[in-house]
Design goal:
mainly alpha; 0% strand; flat; Import inner membrane translocase subunit TIM50
């Protein structure tokens, strides 16, 4: 039995060697290494400016969300409307026809720059108004009475109201 196992091992070993050499010869040569980019400094500077822009955008969005959260917590809806009225009207800033070209251009730039924040405040006010309406629907009762008035024919019917708080109710 030892001789049979040994001969099988030799066959398998030589067969494996034959396959490995055939596989090596069938493989294409590796590709040549890529040349080093000569403008590595320019790519690094471009990458840094792109990262800076991303971080500034994230910081602006985080600051806007924090400001909206604080305004929601600290002020009522009417107070926020009063405080932002001047900002929302500044988006429609215009100058007279007798103004110089530079003043007209400056007014156009100012009104364009103030349009986005004004629209964001209007969106915030609309969303807050809708949210407060939804909360009001759940927090205030829908009617003055808990139960409706009885029909005159049902005046003799009694109503029992049970308080089941802290009571386990189950059926077997």
């Amino acid at each position: 039995m030892y001789g049979v196992a040994r001969s099988r091992f030799r066959i398998t070993r030589s067969h494996r060697r034959f396959l490995s050499t055939a596989l090596l010869h069938d493989q294409p040569p590796p590709p040549p290494p890529l040349p080093e980019p000569s403008s590595a400094g320019a790519a690094g500077a471009e990458n840094k400016s792109w990262n800076f822009l991303k971080y500034c955008l994230v910081a602006a969005l985080t600051g806007g969300a924090a400001t909206a959260g604080y305004a929601t917590y600290a002020y009522s809806l009417t107070e926020v409307e009063e405080r932002t009225k001047a900002l929302r009207t500044s988006a429609n800033y215009t100058v007279g026809d007798s103004a110089s070209g530079f003043d007209k251009f400056q007014a156009l730039l100012y009104s364009s720059a103030m349009t986005v924040p004004a629209k964001l405040f209007e969106l915030y006010l609309d969303l807050r108004h809708l949210t407060e309406e939804q909360v009001r629907d759940y927090s205030e009762p829908s009617s003055d009475k808990l139960l409706p008035d009885l029909h005159p024919l049902e005046q003799h019917v009694f109503t029992i109201v049970l308080d089941l708080s802290e009571t386990l109710v189950y059926s077997d």
